[in-house]
């Protein structure tokens, strides 16, 4: 469900440029889709993992509390030696209308996600379980994904170029900037396809400073 995420109609590239113009971070470095066709938009449902204690805690049953249209955002500290998402979670999330999953870490049972066309953005794939290696520390609190903070309820947008977060309080401002950037870039494309030089078309629309703070 993307009705309350108007930014979803823009590419992550455009949204990233808008964030740059505001001097705000949002692009999650190193987190990529399983397949280039994946698209993702929704409000963040956040979960943070830490190394398992003694005795070990659990990897969590939080998915019961995720609403349709939300995006599960898992902070596993960029670990790539154990997974925190697999086929049971994928099947349940897809069945309940969850918009997708973003992981600062890895996932397994990739074939199930591909079969269901369920969007997953992560640091890769690896088969080893996180059980007894990591445990849930927080649910619904701020997490760090790819070097940026994500809070519950923030807008998450993903496509073939990656995934980013837009804090709820700046969404309207980012949307306005995205509309301007998209309009100007469309005008540049139209001009060059009509025979204009790239330099002339870009100059006319201020292309080289579209993302620059005022």
Binned, the helix content reads: 25-40%
Q: How many domains, in number, for the residues?
A: 2
Number of helices: 5
Which class do the helix and strand fractions yield? alpha/beta
Query: What is the CATH class name of the largest domain?
Result: Alpha Beta
Question: Would you tell me which CATH topology of the largest domain applies?
Answer: Glucose Oxidase, domain 1
SS elements, strand count:
10
Task: Give the ordered list of helices and strands.
Answer: HEEEHEHEEEEEEHH
Biggest β-sheet: count, sense, barrel?
8 strands, mixed
CATH architecture of the largest domain: 3-Layer(bba) Sandwich
Strand residue percentage? 25-35%
Overall pLDDT level = 95
Quote the distance from N terminus to C terminus.
Answer: 34 Å
**Unreliable runs:** none
What are the key terms here?
214 residues; alpha/beta; Glucose Oxidase, domain 1; eight-stranded mixed sheet
């Amino acid at each position: 469900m993307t009705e309350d995420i108007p930014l979803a109609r823009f590419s992550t590239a455009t949204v990233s440029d808008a964030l740059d113009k505001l001097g705000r971070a949002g692009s999650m470095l190193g987190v990529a889709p399983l397949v280039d066709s994946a698209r993702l938009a929704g409000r963040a449902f956040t979960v943070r993992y830490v190394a398992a204690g003694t005795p070990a805690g659990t990897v969590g049953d939080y998915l019961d509390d995720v609403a349709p249209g939300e995006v599960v955002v898992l902070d596993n500290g960029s670990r790539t030696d154990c997974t925190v998402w697999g086929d049971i979670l994928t099947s349940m999330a897809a069945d309940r209308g969850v918009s997708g999953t973003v992981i600062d870490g890895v996932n397994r049972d990739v074939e199930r996600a591909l079969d269901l066309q369920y969007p997953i953005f992560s640091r890769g794939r690896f088969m080893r379980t996180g059980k007894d290696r990591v445990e849930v520390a927080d649910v619904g609190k701020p997490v760090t994904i790819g070097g940026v903070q994500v809070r519950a309820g923030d807008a998450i947008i993903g496509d073939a170029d990656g995934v980013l977060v837009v804090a709820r309080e700046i969404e309207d401002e980012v949307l306005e900037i995205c509309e301007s950037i998209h309009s100007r870039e469309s005008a540049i494309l139209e001009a060059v396809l009509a025979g204009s030089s790239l330099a002339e078309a870009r100059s006319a629309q201020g292309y080289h400073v579209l993302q620059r703070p005022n």
